[in-house]
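> forwarded from #structure-qc
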């Protein structure tokens, strides 16, 4: 049976935390990262750069390596364990699989980044090269979040172990790494204000008054602990958060133009994508900002994913625009959490008709015009923009750039009144956006010669 002996400053029992469910890290793994993966400590853990912070979960810090060389009976060899950064919080323990071995700490240990052990085989018990050596550091004290590797070395003499020369075996693997213990994911959604609503754009498509602008997920990373060996969850990392959504919230205002009272409940966080269950209404609301003050970590993580929701009041039009989200975390004790600034948090579009004239001309002696038709019983606003080829400049002028198509009417826009084309060939492409339903809006481009009477028409391309 193997025996252990070490100095009087042996491992303090109080440093041994956690259970034995974790497998030891195999330093001989060919990937260089150990099998299983290195011990993962939450990068949100606050590390004291001056005095250091002790990472003290003995159960997860065990490592193994094959001895590396056969050792005859009653023979001494020397094992060195070296950390690339950090120091041993307590004296590490090394044991072998060979019966009657005696392993003793000779140098280093507590407060040092290395430890050298003598290994003496017992009478009648030779050690095989494949015998397993188990290293139990109990804890590592670090002053930063650098990757910590562990090197195992077997030497013939203590001097060689001290100077790390001519090893019989040496192997290095990743031992402790810092990874995000909690990840926040904000997914921006694109929603559409519906032209078919009555009045237009006062509801979203599907006759919905409410839509989720963004999905907000806070999730713990599996297999990660804090510096105190407690398994990381969202609530161990942060206590609460203040959320600020930025964008145009004018659709949520009250009939009297204020953003208090009922308006606060129109911008809210819901626990479901349909926005049927509000878990937090905005605590302050303006035309450009919705604030959610002091939402607990438990609330934000109760259902895994929550949703930033907007309800249109029903009278003002829902504006087109983009939204962003700022998150100001209040970290839990012994943790530091990075805030989030201006994360994309949704886009609102409108579903009007886009008509394209791929080519319009202004040759001398010819007349060019756009003809727009609205067969609905509702007046529809429109805007015109232009694209030119290299070397040509087009300037849109006058009221024809934007206007209104009256109900059940046709509007003719002369190109000469709309655009001035200079610099190259007198031609361009035009795009007309009409806030109206596809079934009621159509367009035509016409060019005619005032002398010969020649006319050419083509229907605008509907996008």
């Amino acid at each position: 049976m193997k025996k252990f002996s070490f100095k009087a400053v042996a491992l303090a029992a109080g440093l041994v935390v956690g259970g034995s469910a974790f497998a030891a890290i195999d330093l001989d793994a060919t990937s260089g990262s150990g099998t299983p993966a290195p011990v993962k400590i939450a990068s949100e853990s606050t590390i004291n750069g001056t005095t250091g912070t002790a990472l003290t979960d003995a159960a997860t810090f065990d490592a193994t390596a094959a001895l590396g060389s056969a050792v005859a009976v009653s023979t001494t060899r020397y094992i060195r364990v070296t950390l690339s950064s950090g120091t041993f919080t307590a004296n590490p323990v090394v044991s072998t699989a060979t019966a009657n071995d005696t392993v003793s700490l000779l140098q280093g240990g507590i407060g040092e980044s290395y430890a050298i052990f003598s290994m003496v085989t017992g009478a009648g018990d030779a050690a095989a090269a494949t015998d397993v050596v188990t290293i139990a550091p109990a804890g590592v004290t670090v002053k930063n979040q650098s990757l910590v590797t562990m090197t195992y070395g077997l030497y013939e003499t203590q001097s060689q172990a001290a100077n790390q020369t001519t090893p019989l075996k040496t192997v290095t693997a990743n031992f402790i790494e810092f990874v995000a213990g909690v990840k926040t994911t904000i997914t921006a959604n694109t929603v559409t204000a519906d032209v078919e609503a009555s009045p237009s754009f006062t509801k979203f498509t599907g006759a919905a008054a409410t839509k989720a602008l963004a999905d907000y997920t806070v999730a713990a990373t599996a297999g990660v602990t804090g510096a105190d060996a407690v398994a990381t969850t969202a609530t161990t990392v942060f206590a609460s958060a203040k959320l600020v959504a930025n964008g145009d919230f004018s659709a949520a205002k009250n009939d009297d133009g204020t953003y208090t009272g009922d308006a606060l409940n129109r911008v809210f966080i819901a626990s479901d994508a349909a926005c049927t269950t509000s878990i937090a209404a905005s605590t302050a609301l303006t035309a450009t900002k919705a604030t959610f003050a002091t939402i607990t970590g438990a609330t934000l993580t109760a259902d895994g994913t929550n949703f930033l929701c907007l309800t249109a009041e029903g009278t003002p039009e829902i504006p087109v625009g983009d939204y962003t989200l700022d998150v100001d975390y209040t970290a839990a004790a012994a943790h530091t959490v990075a805030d989030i600034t201006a994360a994309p948090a949704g886009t609102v579009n409108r579903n009007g008709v886009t008509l394209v004239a791929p080519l319009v001309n202004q040759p001398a002696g010819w007349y060019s015009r756009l003809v727009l038709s609205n067969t609905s019983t509702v007046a529809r606003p429109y805007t015109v923009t232009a694209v030119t080829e290299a070397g040509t400049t087009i300037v849109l002028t006058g009221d024809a750039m934007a206007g209104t198509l009256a109900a059940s009417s046709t509007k003719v826009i002369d190109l000469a009144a709309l655009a001035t084309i200079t610099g190259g060939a007198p031609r361009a492409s035009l795009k007309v956006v009409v806030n109206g339903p596809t079934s009621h809006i159509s367009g035509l481009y016409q060019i005619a010669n005032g002398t010969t009477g020649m006319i050419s028409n083509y229907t605008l391309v509907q996008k």
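QC bot note: The chain has a mean pLDDT of 87. Helices lie at 158-163, 234-237, 297-301, 415-418.
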